[in-house]
Amino acid sequence: FIDELHTLGEGDASNQYNFFALLSPYLELDKFQFIASTENENYAKIIEKNTNLARIFHRVEVPPASLEETTEIIESKVIDLMRFKKMRISYLAIKELILDSLKYVHNRVLPDAALYVLDEVETAAKDKIINKSLVKETFAKITKIPSIEIDESQKDFLLNLEQEFAKKIIGQKEATKIIADTLRRSATALRDQNRPIGSFLFLGPTGVGKTELAKTLAKIYYKNSISFLQYDMSEYQTAEAVDRLIGGPEKLGELTEAVKNNPYSLILLDEFEKADPKILTLFLQILEEGRLTDFQGKHIDFSNTIIVATSNVASLLITERIKNNQDFNALREAVKTETLRVFKPELINRFDEIVIFKPLEQVEIEQIVNLKLEELKTKLKDEGYLVEFNPDLITELAKKGYDPSLGARPLRRYLQDNLEAKLSRMILENQLKKGEILELNSQFLI
């Protein structure tokens, strides 16, 4: 018996000096009882390339163990742990371990996945007690998927998501409510567990907060920076770009590898309409089944991701209809009709929600300016510099940093060039003293 047969022929399987070539004549004799094992992807990648070798073997598919079979195997292993290592293991922990192994460990199959996790849990059990809580903590470390128990603090967090969004996102109450409702459904297990946590198509003019809301959502929900994966789909406009996402003969996939390493992530797809149709077809599978097969034949799990696609489709229609105070439900129907002229219906219908972003008004631009200035004020205070911003400065910045065609997008650059640059020079020239309050008004911009 040779385990992992493919490792004997790594490299060029057709080379006459390859181990497979040396082995084949003996396998054709009737003197050997020969059994080997390998995985499906390695059989296709290496063994099958050598037609003579593939012909010699009778291929037998060995399916993964069922839940019942895995339970018997794990219970037998647990009995040994309790008998010989004096460990205490609850039945609820065993059940949690097996079900979560099936759900989250996608690079192994049952029973191997459950046995692997049991070994990890055993190592983590410093007091020789294994309960459901320890199993969840171990899964969080293995899969990088946080274990979220809906306790009272978590309930409060979910019920007040809109208020959390409002700290960073201005003027998009309808959008933030839709997203909050979807996340609440997900947390209470009222979603299809095989699909992504949430999938949204953000529509609206440039510079109204689509990308900013996606970034804020990632920070609020996932609570770390590595869980934000951003792709500019204008860079994936050819059929060959599919290989960039899922991998090819000479490279790993950008998307599949990122999600494999960070399965608990928000994936932002900017300018979604510009992607090649073959790439849009890939996302049909992701949105519906919560998984994608990479070039090597491995299944990548997307069921713990949030998918956000942004597009400027229907931007003009949204702007005009909102100016005319059209009913929001009627606007949604008009936007959906416009969107179906660009995207196929089966793709649109797989998103949980189409989220409409409205153009920003002057008062909302001023609120955004105020948020940016508060952030700047905090940075300066951390360095010992005390700066206050008068209301007339905020109004002036809102006027000059806003472009009707680009929304609030130019605002950051305007603040950098006309406010931060001047303050930096004042610090370097010792004009701004630590501990002394400096009040700035609109005259500072002249």
Summarize the structure.
The protein is built from 20 helices and 13 strands.
Q: Could you characterize the architecture of this molecule?
A:
- The protein has 20 helices and 13 strands.
- A five-stranded parallel sheet has the order 4-7-10-3-11. Strands 1-2 form a two-stranded parallel sheet. The protein has a two-stranded antiparallel ribbon with strand order 5-6.
- Helix 5 runs parallel beside helix 7 (about 130-145) and helix 18 packs across helix 19 (about 390-400).
- The protein starts with 18 loop residues before the first helix and ends in a 6-residue tail after the last strand.
- It is an alpha/beta fold.
- About 50% of the residues lie in helices and about 10% in strands.
- A hairpin with a 5-residue loop joins strand 8 and strand 9 (about 300).
Give a topology summary.
Layout: H1 19-27, H2 40-47, H3 51-56, H4 67-84, E1 88-89, H5 91-104, H6 112-124, E2 129-130, H7 132-143, H8 152-159, H9 161-166, H10 173-187, E3 198-203, H11 210-222, E4 228-232, H12 241-246, E5 247-248, E6 251-252, H13 254-261, E7 266-270, H14 277-289, E8 291-293, E9 299-301, E10 306-311, H15 315-323, H16 328-339, H17 345-348, E11 353-356, H18 362-382, E12 386-389, H19 391-400, H20 411-428, E13 437-440
Parallel strand pairs: 1-2, 3-10, 3-11, 4-7, 7-10, 12-13
Antiparallel strand pairs: 5-6, 8-9
